[in-house]
């Protein structure tokens, strides 16, 4: 299992093996300290699941990495460039290398699905013709598992699962290397959640994506995550495979993965592997 603090020299980070490196992160809101001395590295082309109890700051961590939350202390490097020390405009060359699916999709309700997908294309590549933008948007819509005609629909005309996929299509608009997913299966029925997990894994394999995945879904953790990072006590207390995490003996980890839901998820994964 990985140690809590990454022992990496700067020259190692630039080799591309660690697209995200977080060191000594502190996030503080007034007197409330959400993160304190938090360290985390994300490996290239892995699906890293991020778990933790309510209030541990999983989404705050993601927002810090993508530059939407300015940390109180610490440093975050994405693709070898500091997110915390640079001005926002200086990170344009980094920001177009990641895509984000926010919880709930965060789609613009007054735009069609296709127009939503076009938003990042307009922002980063204004020179692209409208016709080419529409063509790219339709391709991304289909890549996310939606029918082509969904590009002309408004978010209100879609089911919850379809809105998730529409949000994913927008996250994929710029052909990212790094994909952030915040509770992508929340609110989906088990069949819909399983299909989204399978789609995530297929995209990761096909496109060579690195995926940072916040979830409470134990089925997702067992089915597609290469490693899992556990947030507790204002930091990442452990990172590793689920069997490695269980070896730590930490009470929260034991309760989370060995509780009734954890045992059910483990049993489901075991049966799936035996059928495979």
From TrEMBL:
Keyword Transport: yes
Any one Pfam family match given in the protein's UniProt record, by short name: ABC_tran
Keyword terms, alphabetized: ATP-binding, Nucleotide-binding, Transport
InterPro entries according to UniProt: AAA+_ATPase, ABC_transporter-like_ATP-bd, ABC_transporter-like_CS, P-loop_NTPase
Residue ranges of every copy of the ABC transporter domain listed in the record: 20-258
Domain of life of the native organism: Bacteria
Gene3D superfamilies, per the entry: P-loop containing nucleotide triphosphate hydrolases
GO molecular function: ATP binding
Protein name: ATP-binding cassette domain-containing protein
Annotated organism of origin: Parerythrobacter lacustris
């Amino acid at each position: 299992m990985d140690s809590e603090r990454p022992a990496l020299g700067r020259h190692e980070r630039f080799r591309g093996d660690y697209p995200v490196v977080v060191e000594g992160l502190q996030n503080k809101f007034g007197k409330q300290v959400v993160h304190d001395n938090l360290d985390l590295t994300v490996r290239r082309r892995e699906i890293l699941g991020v778990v933790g109890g309510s209030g541990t700051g999983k989404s705050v961590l993601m927002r810090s990495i993508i530059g939407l939350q300015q940390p109180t202390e610490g440093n975050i490097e994405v693709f070898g460039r500091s997110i915390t020390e640079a001005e926002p405009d200086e990170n344009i060359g980094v920001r177009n290398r990641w895509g984000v699916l926010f919880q709930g999709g965060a789609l613009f309700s007054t735009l069609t699905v296709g127009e939503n997908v076009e938003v990042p294309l307009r922002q980063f590549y204004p020179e692209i013709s409208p016709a080419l933008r529409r063509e790219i948007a339709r391709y991304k819509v289909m890549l996310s598992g939606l029918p082509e005609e969904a590009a002309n629909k408004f978010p209100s005309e879609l089911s919850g699962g379809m809105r998730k996929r529409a949000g994913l299509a927008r996250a994929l608009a710029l052909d990212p290397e790094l994909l952030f997913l915040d509770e992508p299966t929340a609110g989906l029925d088990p069949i819909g959640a399983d299909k989204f997990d399978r789609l995530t894994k297929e995209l990761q394999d096909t496109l060579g994506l690195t995926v940072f995945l916040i979830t409470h879904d134990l089925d997702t953790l067992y089915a597609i995550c290469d490693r899992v990072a556990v947030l507790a006590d204002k930091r990442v207390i452990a990172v590793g495979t689920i069997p490695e995490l269980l070896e730590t003996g930490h009470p929260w980890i034991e309760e989370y993965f060995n509780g009734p839901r954890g045992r059910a998820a483990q049993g489901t994964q075991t049966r799936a592997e035996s059928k495979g």
